[in-house]
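Deliverable D5.2: sample structural annotation.
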Amino acid sequence: MKDTPVVLINGPRQSGKTTLVKEYSPSLSYYTLDDDNILNAAKQDPVGFINGIDKAIIDEIQRAPELLRAIKLSVDQNRQPGRFLLTGSANLLTLPKIGDSLAGRMEILTLLPLSLAEIGRRESLFLSYAKNQSWPQQIPSEQLEIISRVLTGGYPEMLMRPDLARRSAWAKSYIRAIVERDIKDISSIEKLVEMPRLLEVLAQQSGKLTNFTQIGGQLNLDSKTAQKYTGLLETLFLVHQLKPWHGNALNRILKTPKIHFLDSGLLASLNRVTIESVEWNKSDFGALLETWVYSELLKATSFTEEPWNIYYYRDKDKVEVDFILENHARKIIGIEVKASHTIFNQDFRGLRKLADLTDKNWLSGIVLYNGDKLWAIPFSMLD
């Protein structure tokens, strides 16, 4: 805001964007495009609407993309920093007309639901520990505490509802609102009725290799349509396609992405997973736990000034590493997620293979729950 005319905070609905921008800039005029009167005025005369504004917060900008060209014209005439603070509940980087219209004039930040460190009001140090291989002594969390954290996720509204039934009710309303309104805002699709069913199918596939032919077959959709509809859910920050890691020396890598939900609490509600069902059937918990760790890694990498990309590794021998963090210097951190209480030597198999493949670029390998550059770390260390 000190050196950029337009700042956009994008991220899923109910992640705290509006609360953040209002508290950060209480003196700015505030317009929300969730208000139909304001939305209609913005759509009917975008240039006139923006010309009547000097500095302002404009909430849910994806609902009136026409405003972005008007903002561009206004900023080109007056490039004073901090003029427009925008929020969007869709990934505007995936919408070309939006990205192009403010290139070089807008800084984009992503706000995901609360991380474990944020919930505890602590600084996120996981990446620093992993990079420096310097882990403090810490007592592992009780299993029931970890299960509860995973089932709740990071949405503020979910965290404020201690009762599972009320969290599930909120999750259902949340998904219904996105399907009935937000998808319409960013795309016109023929089979809107299939979107809730698609979400349920993807919930069963979270953390698994993506097969759009199989997914589409369950919904009477062809694979291209299933992929397109999944892309819309990704644009709205519900799911994310995790790509495989590859390097010049890797010729056997599989190219198929994995689908992950961005919030484990939402995934738990879709899959109807409870503390009781986890205690009865531990297999329900594995995919949820992996989704939770992925979400925490996304948040941790967003907190650091050093850019990190997240991938997974799997070769044709089915040797896998759940997550790979790679920085711009191509330094690698490998992370395995295990739901069991006990760590065995074989749990480091994928990390050891990846360490050999990456050689001098290898920083460390971690099994989240000793050996040179290999660590078994309690889940509580994701703080």
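Annotation notes: The chain has two domains: 6-110, 116-382. DSSP finds 17 helices and twelve strands in the chain.
The annotation will be released with the project's public dataset once the embargo ends.
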